Structures are given as structure tokens and as C-alpha cells.
Amino acid sequence: MGVMNHNAVVATTWNDKCFDRLMLWLNEQPEQLRNLCLVGEPHTNGERTICIVPDGSKEGWPKSDNVDELRQSLIERLKEDEYEDGSSPWCWVEVGFGEFGQKVLRGNNWNRYDDQEYAA
Hints:
The protein is α+β, with helices and mostly antiparallel strands.
């Protein structure tokens, strides 16, 4: 038996060059892993989004480990686009939910307005 927990990454950018470079990387991934990725085309302000959805396998299973590696690789590519001052053309977050509860695991966003709904 294993724990059923779900992890996902959501990343959004306005920068077409960064997005297109990420899509080239994504297209190099095995089809089984590519099928876990969703791409959102811009609706407003040219913002485009990529999501890696949960894989549905139990923690510690080889299939789960493969998708853990895919998420980590995506995050490393997002970090490659960071500017010298630490800012980024990407807003991204990794979330986890399931038998471990729910949590924002990591991301590159911070609350600029002290909005209580988003307060830590």
C-alpha cells in the first residue's frame, strides 16, 4: 500500500520566448509524461499557462517518481529564466493535496498586498 497524494505545478508567463522554449523542452518528453501537461493559451494580456497535473499513482511507485522528476525538471527550467534581481517572467506554484492534506509546496510568489485570503 502507498499514500495517495496529488502534486501539480502551474506556471504562467507573458513572455512568449520563455514559453516557447519551455514548450520545446516539453515536446522532448516521452508521450506518457507529455499527456500529463495542459497548456492554456492567452485569454487576456497575453498570459499563457502550463500545468503538470497529478499522475494518479501512489507515492513511491515508479510512475509517481517519474512524474516527480518531470515536475522538478520543469521547475528548474522556470528558474533558468530568473533575472539577476531574482524576479522572473514566470509566476509558478507547486501544490500538493490528498492524504497528506493540502499545501503550497513551493513557488516564486509573495503577497504584496497583505490580502487576508492569501496571508500565510
